[in-house]
Amino acid sequence: MTKENLQMPDENGYFGEYGGQIIPPPLIDIMNEINDAYDKVTQTESFQQELQQLYADYVGRPSPIYFAQRLTGKVGGARIFFKREDLNHTGAHKINHCLGEALLARHMGKTKVLAETGAGQHGVALATVCALIGIDCEIHMGEIDIEKEHPNVTKMKILGCKLVPVSRGTRTLKDAVDSAFEEYLKDPVNYFYAIGSVVGPHPFPKIVRDFQSIVGREAREQFLAKENKLPDVLIACIGGGSNAMGLFTAFLDDEDVRMIGVEPAGKGLDTGEHAATLTLGSKGAIHGFECYSIQDKEGNPLPVYSIASGLDYPGVGPQHCHLKDIKRVAYESIDDEECLDAFMQVSRLEGIVPALESAHAIAYAMKIAKDMSPDETILINLSGRGDKDADFVAERLSL
Fold first, then answer.
1. Any alpha helices (H) in 108-172, and if so which ranges?
2. Would you please indicate which residues are annotated as catalytic (active-site) residues?
3. Which among 21, 48, 184, 193 has the fewest CB atoms less than 10 Å away?
4. What would you measure as the largest C-alpha separation in the chain, in angstroms?
5. pLDDT category, 4, cuts 50, 70, 90?
């Protein structure tokens, strides 16, 4: 990747062949207005000062880098490190872009912020920052995820957001996106749709990536200070792809740093019950942009599945699609059982209960670390904590 490539997307919102604005013409003007406001306001000193102050004093940034010594000893081979996004206020990386989006919505004079959520982390983060800033918040969430992620549902209600259960289709993340977008279309002039990942029509893949890129900028500086070199391998889970782009962006020019995105293989890649979009998907359009997606022959999204509610999305961020095509990032997959094993091992070896989403990345690191040298290093973006998943896992494993 060259520095010119890092400036993507182009003026039409494309990362190579992917992205764009596959939306009705009236919405294009709204999206372009958001893009112009974003480009203008984020260049002001006042916006950056407020954002950085909130990152430091409210979120608790910078999040630390932690050497997982006991996990490394158990697995053998390369030394494994975590970028501890689970220690952020609200428990995940999601608050990084939620703060930015909410500040942008306030600057634009919007009256309500809308969003979808799967695992609930985006919903909790957005409800949190809307309470902080003083703007109405409405979160759409599939009924299956509401039942599965009950602790986050309770938090959202306490924080004062309007929670809309989604009963259509698979009653999970894709349907929550559809529902939230329909509500947004009722008044796009006054509403702001705070998309929860590096997906959707331009400019949202760019906006969310840029706000999340603080993860990689911190990690690069911290790792150099700690190890006097860059990591040999970066690993992050992939649903829509925001935590991965957050980590990867600062390292794209470092050709010696391998990057691996880990998708959910669910119950197996051969079962149809997975969300391995980049592994088995094909180019299509979903939710206003072009990307790899799990779809039928007519181009309609198919149901997807993951044990991790935040990963069961049939599309993926357009920049990830481009990075796959140019072979800058490798995309692999981990199934439910491997994920659960990693969840339990990290919990009991390190005293860190990871989100099931993050456990996919940890599981893949465990798989490759044993065949690497002890002189080599793996940095995992531990994108969230597993409080929300604890009851589900305990029931699943009969603990």
1. 121-133, 143-148, 150-158
2. 94, 116, 383
3. 48
4. 57
5. very low
Domains and CATH numbers, the chain: 15-55+94-209 (3.40.50.1100), 62-91+213-396 (3.40.50.1100)
Measured in whole angstroms, the distance separating CA 84 from the mean position of its chain's CA atoms is: 14
> Do the bridges between strand 191-193 and strand 258-266 make them parallel or antiparallel, or are there none, so unpaired?
unpaired
The confidence score (pLDDT) of residue 248 equals: 98
Burial class (CB in 10 A: 0-12, 13-18, 19+), 197: buried
Question: Does the pLDDT at position 123 exceed 90?
Answer: yes
Tell me whether residue 272 is exposed, middle or buried, using C-beta atoms within 10 angstroms of its C-beta: 0 to 12, 13 to 18, 19 or more: middle
Contact 170, 63 (CB under 8 A): no
Structure tokens at 292: 């790899």
Q: Which of 327, 155, 153, 315 is nearest to 242 (CA)?
A: 315
**Per-residue pLDDT tens over the stretch 282-320:** 999 999 999 999 999 999 999 999 999 899 999 999 999
* pLDDT value at 109 more than 70: yes
